[in-house]
User: What shape does this take?
Amino acid sequence: MTRVLALILGPLYPRVIGGAEILARLVSKRLGSLGFSTDLVGVVPKGFPGPLVPDDPWGEEYPFPKSTILLPNLAARLYRRYMPDVVLSIMGHSSLLGCLIKFLGRVRGHATVFAGVDAAYLAGRMPDGGTREYLAYLASMKVAFPLCGRSGHVALSPKMREMLIRGGIRPSAVRIIPTPVEEVFFDIEADPGAGRILYIGRLEPIKGIDVLIRAFYDLVKERGDVELVLVGNGSMERRIREIARSGRLRGKIRLVGVVPYGSVGRILAGGGILTLPSRMEGLPMAMLQGMAAGLPIVATAVGGIPDVLRDGRNGLVVRPNSPDSLKKALEVLLEDEELARRLGEAAREDARPFSLDRVARMYANLVEDLEMGNIS
Assistant: This one.
């Protein structure tokens, strides 16, 4: 039986509730049901807070070494503990640890699963602010890949694949495997005309949450029958709470906070328009979940979003960093419920190729090819 080790150089869900952490959890579990022996490992910085929500943990966590210089010692320890045949490093910066495990042990194959931001970093796109994170990610990847030798790379979409190739990855080594969505989301019957705008994700500038607040403020000036529901937390939460308690937006913004992964379906079932105003993305899990639930989507043309969301067919695609563009798209769907319903129905059908069962089988094929050395 092939032993697969999936790892994240960071905490696991439910300490962190993010697309990469959920992806690691879903794929490693489903690979186990497909006949692989799978383990999931996270490496947690000292003092990192406990779980954000009460939920069933999956995988094991190890403390981050006191110094990066000691990372090879951790790699050797993990190799002895799990004896993997194949290592999957979830997110680009995790590849440093994954490639060390491959280099030090008798590991047959390794692949890095890029989450979106890391692919943009590799392609040379540095975000506003965030220089320290950019340099750390880039340094990790530049050190890791030579250690790995022949290694696989997973892009979540065709546009992400282009980014990786621009960043110096061999085209033959890049495989497109999309973000998965669990089958349960296809059973949701949501009302797209519920009169609310829904956002699920981190409350951070990179997610465009400031753009959403400005667009919503302008929207409320013209119509008072709409509510903004924000699910998640982040550095902008305090400021948004202040805005939500005063002026024109008083009583119009509801901050739900973080919720267990299993509660996302219930929130989507409440209906409305799902929006993703991000400045950088991979292929957002929240978008695919909303599509599967039949919600109309308004999202920015960044990362892998335009590969899936087709403007006017299964959603509306807007310019990033444009409150006016976002406001107008939201207004169109609020005023035309029939259009919202039609886009939601098309979105549900277009999300079916991203079912967890299909995506997990793509990862199974990747693991088999890595073990056999069929990645060039």
Summary: The mean pLDDT is 93. The first helix runs from residue 19 to 33. Residues 183-353 form a domain with the Rossmann fold fold (CATH 3.40.50.2000). The chain has two domains: 3-180+355-372, 183-353.
